[in-house]
């Protein structure tokens, strides 16, 4: 086990590089890497250069960021709510973002406007759930979970209403957004900074996370400020989820399945679970993006469909493995 822990993160990082290399190299167009190199060095633009640098590279970067954000948020949510079925969307952040994005699409806003509206909806849902769960006194994980589930159901009803009354010309774009889709624009430094900040905060409180996972009273007896820790977990996971949703829509199962996969590989130490989830989630979504644009080429599937096909059997396997008797 110690040897496995020592090589765990470097091996995962190598896996991310392999996944990224496959994403850049594989597609409907066979790449002439000499032309890509000439484009990088001498500025000679070509079809192959544009395919790699203008389409595949931005999508791979976005996939890594979104997958990492969702996986880290899922790991934090599962500890915060003390529920192995918790995922980044359980508190309604995705629902609020979906309503904002669908309204923007109905109004004919550009991509930047859709992302902005989704961000407003996600943050609004984040603060509403927190306010309602806290109420006039102390808030518990159970109350937070119930409030989030009810809010998510309410947002789901609004989404169904918007789909029902939307003009047919907008339905395809709305459905693609709801199923998760990656853009072909680089995400910018702001989202990279958010992911780095979220990772740093999560690793910083990783020891406290380990104690909180054993029980709130036990953690408090060992000196952990559980109220402050839960606030940190809630807003860190919420902001990461909001950023991921505004970048790629609602992509399911990554935040639910990936933390369980990492814990199965390396145990429950969140000093490894959190960065490991980031790397596994990023690699998983890079591979999912590759499958989505190649399996039915020249047609392209929403990435969320591929993650669902991967996530459902994976989670059922993990569930069956955890329920199996140990000798």
Based on the model shown, name its key terms.
327 residues, 0% strand, mainly alpha
Q: Report the radius of gyration as a whole number of Å.
A: 20 Å
The CATH topology assignment is ABC transporter involved in vitamin B12 uptake, BtuC
- Which regions contain 5 or more consecutive residues with pLDDT less than 50? none
Q: CATH superfamily name?
A: ABC transporter involved in vitamin B12 uptake, BtuC
Structural category is mainly alpha
Structure description:
- The chain has 327 residues and is mostly helical.
- α4 runs antiparallel to α5.
- The chain has 14 helices and no strands.
- The protein has one domain: ABC transporter involved in vitamin B12 uptake, BtuC, CATH 1.10.3470.
- Helices cover 78% and strands 0% of the residues.
- The longest helix has 34 residues.
Question: Helices, strands, pairings?
Answer:
Blueprint: H1 2-25, H2 33-42, H3 47-80, H4 93-106, H5 111-134, H6 141-165, H7 168-179, H8 189-204, H9 206-213, H10 216-221, H11 226-248, H12 254-266, H13 270-294, H14 303-323
Helix pairs in contact: 1-3, 1-13, 2-3, 3-8, 3-11, 3-12, 3-13, 4-5, 4-6, 4-7, 4-11, 5-6, 5-11, 8-11, 8-13, 12-13, 12-14, 13-14
Short description:
The protein is mainly alpha-helical and 327 residues long. It has 14 helices and no strands. It has a single domain, classed as ABC transporter involved in vitamin B12 uptake, BtuC (Orthogonal Bundle).
